[in-house]
């Protein structure tokens, strides 16, 4: 039985200016104990899919199950199998950290779980804040409490919706260390993130959404192996020649150009030289998940096919 199953999920929003198909026939399973990444640009439909999973929104078509429980027909059992860490910082200012975790446990009908609450507090670096009032905590500490709240009932499936947006390095490390430990103990994890290096480091499999459709779904290693090329990175103040400009990813002075192999690297360098482009801090590196992601999102040939410079 998969931990989570999305079967032909579609969602249409109807508004004053017509209808928007935010999800269009999304189907995939997350296996028990799997660490799964859901990636996609802004507006791809990730939050909509997670809202449907959480029972906060209804699919227009299709079916979603959590540990075999239909999220609509069997909402309570499905919700109980999920630990959802929300994006926003929502908290009750009147309680201490420990109280808020006890109250949250009560919502799930869980009693006598103080040992687990202590484990959560220790694992998330909150042990010395157990009796602090929620409103006294910094934003990062509140976020840790939200993670703990999502896990009070030891759910088999943990959903993290952009958990590290605006979070400092220390909290990221604490969070990933703890989540990885839970994953080793058998909890499935569904992660959405815009930090592709996190997805590359943590996820076994990755689905990429674009405009409501799954455009890639594979083992992370397999997706990465599709990006066999070399990536040329350099800084320049000059405009790139028309032969290279459409292939380049430019961020300020930094340009990155994918190439197929060493001969491709030489071709690019020759074209830069010919065009009189002055290059600084040149590096040649392996293509990474970001390159795979961008080439898929730009609609390059097939999933995982990096754009190449003609040699
Ligand atoms: N309640 C709503 N009513 C109408 N349209 C909506 C609603 N919620 C989302 N949308 C639209 O559905 C599409 C998918 O949005 P969604 O928030 O799921 O994307 P996302 O992948 O989570 O994006 P982000 O990375 O920015 O969080 C977008 O075009 C969005 O504008």
TrEMBL record:
Residue intervals of the ABC transporter domain: 4-236
GO molecular function: ATP binding; ATP hydrolysis activity
Annotated InterPro entries: AAA+_ATPase, ABC_transporter-like_ATP-bd, ABC_transporter-like_CS, ABC_transporter_ATP-binding, P-loop_NTPase
Cell membrane keyword on record: yes
Pfam families xref list: ABC_tran
Keyword Cell membrane carried by entry: yes
Name by which UniProt lists this protein: ABC transporter ATP-binding protein
Organism, scientific name: Vitreoscilla filiformis
């Amino acid at each position: 039985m998969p931990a989570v199953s999305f079967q032909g999920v579609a969602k249409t929003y109807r508004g004053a200016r017509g209808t928007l198909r935010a999800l269009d026939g999304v189907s995939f399973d997350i296996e028990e104990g799997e660490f799964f990444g859901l990636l996609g640009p802004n507006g791809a439909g990730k939050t909509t899919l997670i809202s449907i999973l959480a029972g906060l929104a209804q699919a227009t078509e299709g079916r979603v199950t959590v540990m075999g429980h239909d999220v609509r027909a069997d909402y309570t059992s499905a919700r109980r199998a999920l630990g959802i860490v929300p994006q926003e910082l929502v908290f009750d200012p009147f309680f201490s950290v420990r109280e808020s975790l006890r109250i949250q446990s009560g919502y799930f009908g869980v009693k006598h779980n103080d040992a687990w609450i202590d484990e959560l507090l220790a694992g998330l670096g909150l042990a010395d804040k157990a009796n602090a009032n929620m409103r006294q905590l910094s934003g990062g500490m509140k976020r840790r409490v939200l993670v703990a709240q999502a896990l009070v009932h030891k759910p088999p499936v943990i959903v993290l919706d952009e958990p590290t947006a605006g979070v400092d390095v220390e909290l990221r490390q604490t969070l990933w260390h703890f989540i990885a430990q839970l994953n080793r103990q058998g909890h499935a994890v569904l992660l959405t993130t815009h930090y592709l290096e996190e997805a590359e480091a943590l996820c076994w499999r990755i689905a990429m959404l674009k405009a409501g459709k799954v455009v890639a779904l594979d083992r992370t290693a397999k997706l990465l192996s599709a990006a066999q090329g070399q990536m040329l990175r350099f800084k320049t103040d000059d405009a790139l020649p028309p032969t290279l400009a459409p292939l380049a990813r430019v961020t300020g002075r930094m340009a990155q150009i994918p190439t197929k192999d060493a001969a491709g690297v030489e071709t690019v360098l020759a074209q830069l030289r010919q065009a009189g482009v002055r290059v600084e801090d040149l590096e040649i590196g392996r293509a990474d998940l970001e390159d795979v992601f961008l080439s898929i999102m730009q609609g390059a040939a097939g999933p995982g096919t990096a754009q190449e410079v003609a040699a």
